[in-house]
Amino acid sequence: MITAAQNELAQSDSTEYVCTAKKLPVLSMSNYFRNPTMVYPASVNCSASTGWQYNSGQFSWLQKARFPGYLTASTKGSKLVFEFVGTEFGMLYNMGANMGAVSIYIDGTHVKDVDAYLSYTNPREAVIAENLKNGSHTVEIVLNENAAFDIGALLYS
Questions:
Q1: All residues at 6 or more sequence positions from 60 whose CB lies less than 8 Å from its CB, including other chains
Q2: Which residue has the higher pLDDT, 62 or 130?
Q3: Rounded to an integer, what distance in angstroms lies between the CA atom of residue 140 and that of residue 5?
Q4: Alpha carbon 134 to chain centroid distance?
Q5: Which H or E element spans position 141?
Q6: Which strand (E) or helix (H) includes residue 72?
Q7: pLDDT tens-digit map of 62-77
Q8: What is the per-residue pLDDT across 38-55, written as a single tens digit (0 to 9) for each?
Q9: Looking at CB atoms within 10 Å, which of 22, 88, 95, 117 has the fewest?
Q10: Residue 145 · residue 98 · CB < 8 Å
């Protein structure tokens, strides 16, 4: 919109910088959820999971009141199982120097690998899958190495 206003100013005799109402284009990016549900780690049922546990500490440097606790694993092969109904799935996870990588499967099919290694600590969100058939889905998040992986929230819509 600012570029449009600058162009209008350059093509007019006006000395005022005015931005007229413009319709924003439809975004072609699809890496944003539509009406997501955020599931905090304390609410995730880990009974079908192996090697993942809930930690009530603060997730990364985010406010504890907003993101209380996290799910964590550090043993290769640890598997977190999560079920949801919808068409999209994602997660908020921690990146850092001692973080590892996971493979993510939805309904038994590998959809993405996520590497959380970064030289400094930083929370990150990722859309893992979208345009799934609307219905029930089972997600499996499997740790690929003996390194930590921390999940601050799961998202679906």
A1: 67, 94, 121, 122, 123, 150, 152
A2: 130
A3: 49
A4: 19
A5: strand 135-143
A6: strand 68-73
A7: 655 566 789 999 999 9
A8: 898 999 998 999 999 999
A9: 22
A10: no
- Global pTM reads 0.77
- C-alpha angle 153-154-157 in degrees, rounded to nearest 5: 135
Cβ neighbours, 10 Å, residue 107: 14
Q: Tokens 């009141």 belong to which residue?
A: 65
β-partners of residue 142 are: 79, 103
Distance CA 113, CA 120 (A): 20
On the CB side of 83, how many CA atoms lie within 13 Å of its CA?
Answer: 7
Residues 17, 5 contacting (CB under 8 angstroms): yes
CA distance 135 to 19: 44
pLDDT exceeds 60 at position 31: no
DSSP assigned state of 24: P
CA distance 34 to 102: 25
